[in-house]
Amino acid sequence: MHILEIDSLSNEQINKIFSIADSTTQNKNTDALKGKVLALLFTLPSTRTRLSFSAAMTQLGGSTFYLDQQSSQMKRGESVADTTRMLNFYCDFVAVRTEDHKMLLEIAASASIPVINALTMQEHPTQALTDVYTILKHKSLKGLRIALVGDIAQNTFNSLMLLAVKLGAEVHLIGPKGFEPDKRYVSKAERYGTVRIYDSIKEGMAGVDIIYTDTFVSMGDEGEAEKRRTLFAPYQVNAQMLSYAKPDALVMHPLPAHRGEEITSDVLDSPKSIAWEEARNKLTMAKAVILFLAEKR
After folding, report:
1. pTM for the whole structure
2. Containing structural domain, residue 120
3. CB 146 within 8 A of CB 164
């Protein structure tokens, strides 16, 4: 089994991953994966995802190695399929972080070991699992109203929207006209529940329980950075925005945060913010995902 896209996980499997996550918090270090190896095949930079998967394998008794295009034979033209065949020989799992979602699918097609999507430009399922797991420590998901604010056409929002709606939440996508969300993901989410799209912050924030934002300039969008910062500036998560949501609304951010752009420091560091708990839970979720896949082998 692989974890490539949120839509491929059943509710039963999602709840099983969350159950494993709960059990890992009670037992930090084990030999559950002694002798097992996780390859981190990353063609994009990473801090939290790379560290969380590396620490997860260490705490589970296994090990990791890091492989990128520049330091491997991929730089000299070795095909994705041939590289994957070698990973099958040497590793037990592979986590892939790449701009190209088709590359991820090509790796999965050639892999005899579990493949984990550690981010593509279409989805970031392990982040979404972390986010919902974090929310569930504070609020029930049934009937919860979650606002995704800013660049609503990006990978993290795609995955979180799908997962949240699958489990009973309502999602509000709030961003400027001209930057509408990916219709394919909205259509998928609407099969499970309610998704609403707003350009009005005040209307979109009405009755919101969770406010979630991310960078205005994602990887690959650097060429239009200034345009994006100007266009998205009114959608900054700040004290004024919070005043339109429920009084007990919580704030989330997958990090890294660009303080003063998509979120202000006073909000990010406030008691309403669970962004740092969210970051800590990436380790918990990395362990849960790996253990879940290990059970399926």
Report:
1. 0.94
2. 6-124+279-296
3. yes
